[in-house]
Design a protein that fits this description.
Subcellular location: Cytoplasm
Helix content: 40-55%
Largest sheet: 5 strands, parallel
Bound molecules: fructose -6-phosphate
Order of helices and strands: HHEEHHEHEHEHEHEHHHEHEEHEHEH
Number of helices: 15
Strand content: 15-25%
Low-confidence stretches: none
Distance between the termini: 32 Å
Keywords: Aminotransferase, Cytoplasm, Glutamine amidotransferase, Repeat, Transferase
Function: Catalyzes the first step in hexosamine metabolism, converting fructose-6P into glucosamine-6P using glutamine as a nitrogen source.
Organism: Flavivirga amylovorans
GO molecular function: glutamine-fructose-6-phosphate transaminase (isomerizing) activity
Number of strands: 12
Length: 366
């Protein structure tokens, strides 16, 4: 049932082109230049009248929420707050009928996320769910929602759930942007076209597998990793670090690249590998200067770069290329090599990739 792969996680990583296609099928209608999502259309007034959108989630789903914050604010110009469900529900949050709460959950069973939904509903907010598991508790508890259609995710470490959550949230942001008039029709069409090409580009990114395996071999025995990214790719850095921690038990931290000089730079020496997401669009020059700072402290640099990159290639110890896309869609590609890197390191260390110690697929207790 692993479809010829050694682990569910690897199978699910490779399923992402199909999963993302399934997620936008019937919703992204490029010919007609529209996005059709029943849960949004039926509740358009609620979204358009919202003073802000609050996103609640845990773990990887929270990282997808952070990516969505950039997309919603950028495209739909609506203020967004992203909260850990566990913190949100216990801090006496200010919620009104003018708030829209989006809960993101692969399993649809996460206890803290479910409790945050109930709290927001009790204050009169409109609650929208982004779940993978059909008929799950969160899918039932929310007023409306959109499924990710990623198919069953068996590996405990979330992979295709993450990229399909980002896909759904991107569709929502684009739909709202169109309704609000915060995106031009040509820009909107361009986004649809680029989003439609993502599955092909994910496929392309997966071809780096053998190269990534070699990098994994070099660094598998270190005890610490840093992951850096800026803008849309800051949450991807967090997600890359989480993936590595979860399945390889190597300590890893994700940081916004510019925060490095406010502390973590003290950790850098010749034993520290640093994964830097340095794709062409979005703060490229600034990330390059962060890479220079790392290099002058002898840190080992693994750059995630756009195909054909030259500048980072000159500075980094290793680069992994991903195809070019819009900045807002880049997390869907930059995530792929990070999933593969953690997978290969964990396998080389002999860890139980699909069922890491101490972890459960759905966290139904708080
Ligand atoms: C990470 C992981 C967890 C989940 C988190 C939320 O790989 O699997 O961090 O993302 O427990 O789970 P869901 O999305 O089911 O609410």
């Amino acid at each position: 049932e692993k479809g010829g792969f050694d682990h569910f996680m690897l199978k699910e990583i490779h399923e992402q082109p199909k999963a993302i296609t399934d997620t936008y099928r019937g919703r992204l209608l490029r010919q007609e230049a529209i996005i059709k999502m029943a849960g949004i259309e039926d509740n358009m007034k609620k979204f358009l009248n919202a003073d802000r959108i609050i996103i609640v989630a845990c773990g990887t789903s929270w990282h997808a929420g952070l990516v969505a914050e950039y997309i919603f604010e950028d495209l739909a110009r609506v203020p967004v707050e992203v909260e850990y469900a566990s913190e949100f529900r216990y801090r006496n949050p200010i919620i009104t009928e003018k708030d829209v709460l989006i809960a993101i959950s692969q399993s649809g069973e996460t206890a803290d996320t479910l409790a945050a939904i109930k709290l927001a509903k009790s204050k009169g907010a409109f609650v929208f769910g982004v779940c993978n598991v059909v008929g799950s508790s969160i899918a039932r508890e929310t007023h409306a929602g959109a499924y990710t259609h990623a198919g069953p995710e068996i590996g405990v470490a979330s992979t295709k759930a993450f990229t399909t959550q980002i896909t759904v949230l991107t569709l929502i942001a684009l739909r709202l942007a169109r309704a609000k008039g915060t995106i031009s029709s040509s820009d909107f069409r361009h986004h649809l076209l680029e989003l439609e090409m993502i599955p092909k580009k994910v496929e392309e990114s997966l071809k780096s597998d053998a190269h990534i395996q070699k990098i994994a071999e070099i660094y598998k025995d270190v005890s610490n990793f840093l992951y850096l990214g800026r803008g849309y790719n800051f949450p991807v850095a967090l997600e890359g670090a989480l993936k590595l921690k979860e399945i390889s038990y190597i300590h890893a931290e994700g940081y916004p690249a510019a925060e490095m000089k406010h502390g973590p730079i003290a950790l850098i020496d010749e034993n520290m590998p640093i994964v830097v997401i340095a794709t062409k669009k979005g703060h490229y020059e600034k990330v390059v200067s962060n890479i220079q700072e790392i290099k002058s402290r002898k840190g080992k640099i693994i750059g995630i770069v756009t195909e054909g990159d030259v500048q980072v290639k000159e500075l980094a110890d290793h680069v992994i290329e991903v195809p070019e896309t819009l900045e807002s869609l880049s997390p869907l590609l930059t995530t792929i090599p990070l999933q593969l890197l953690s997978y290969h390191i964990a396998v080389m260390l002999g860890k139980n990739v699909d069922q890491p110690r101490n972890l459960a697929k759905s966290v139904t207790v708080e």
